[in-house]
Amino acid sequence: MPNPIELVATILFAIAIIHTFSVPIFARMAHRGSRHAGLWHLLSEVEAVFGVWAFIVLVIMALMAGVDHTVHYMDTRNFTEPAFVFAIMVVAASRPILDLVGVVVRGVARILPVRAELATFFVTLSLVPLSGSFITEPAAMTLAALLLRDGYFKRSRHTGFKYLTLGVLFVNVSIGGVLTSYAAPPVLMVAHTFGWDAAHMATHFGWRAASAVIINAGVLTLIFRKYLIEGNHAANEAASGSADVVDAAAGKARPDVPLAVMAVHLLFLLGIVLGAHHPTIFMGLLLFFIGYTEAYKRHQNPLMIKEGLMVGFFLAGLVVLGGLQKWWLQDLLAGLEPVVLYWGATALTAITDNAALTYLGSLVDGTSDLWRYMLVAGAVTGGGLTVIANAPNPAGFSILKNYFPDGAISPLKLLCSALVPTLVAAFMFLLPNAFS
What we know:
Low-confidence stretches: 233-251
Number of helices: 25
């Protein structure tokens, strides 16, 4: 039985989930310009939802169990992931990195035997998410979202196109990080416990995920082929990232980013990725990075500090609230048969972070290899259904939300848009495997 604090936390967790599905309502209220517009705007920010409700939980905990108990609870939480997502988002969104990724995307698109507009869109939704297996999922999400923002979302008024693209992006990033054992948060949480290395991930998960990513990106490109061509989304525009060629303030052309600056930024990015488990290392590198960008400001766009902090705030709130859900979630997972577990994990991921889900599953004793496979496969399959399903999702959400009606993304429409690509991933992961 849960203690009173756990019960209250679960009720507030449920309210927070309902809140995430209600943000379009608050966004419309904010745009009416009433005297409470500022409050409605705050409540319409998905990135603030879990942070706000986590604060309420901590206040109630302090009143019920005392300040010392509350402080002890916070001391036992691991906030490495929120801090890492903040750091990697700031670096990955820098102009030199986006220029470099744009060069790669354009180069790969030229190789494909289709029109440049279609090839670039396809590569952005396939190759970039798959790169998350090496540069981590949060970095891949940031890069893909920025490329889509500058190449498509800024110029498009087609809301259906944006939602379907967002659904494919979220699903592909969630499954695209499983080619290795360190890049996807739900895999990272269990890889050591389950004894999974990069070779295991590539043979059991990787080829399935890559196939699903390519199918999802290819089908969406095929569906919108006429729109992509007629919309005049030229390949070089779509892949140019945030490399604005005109300085808005000075009204004159900006110089291209030198290769040396790109190389330095890439080294910072790789350093933060390699230090992902050590906050003192990657936060120290981030501070050095900020200093470097100030020294070479002429080659930079404004860093995404605010957006990164909001995403970190969201994930930190999820850590605080999610830590009090173990009493029901772990027992629920332990009682499921492998196939039921797969679909159960896929559904549960929509209402709780998939990394938390796999971590709790790793604590269950006496599980089989098939049970473990189904747990992780289900968790990554459902990672695109909602903004809270996968840690990188809030980053993409934050970057793209302003290009949707009322500056808000409808969670229900996102869920519907992600259903088909989720089913494609499910088909691939449920193909006969070595554990069957």
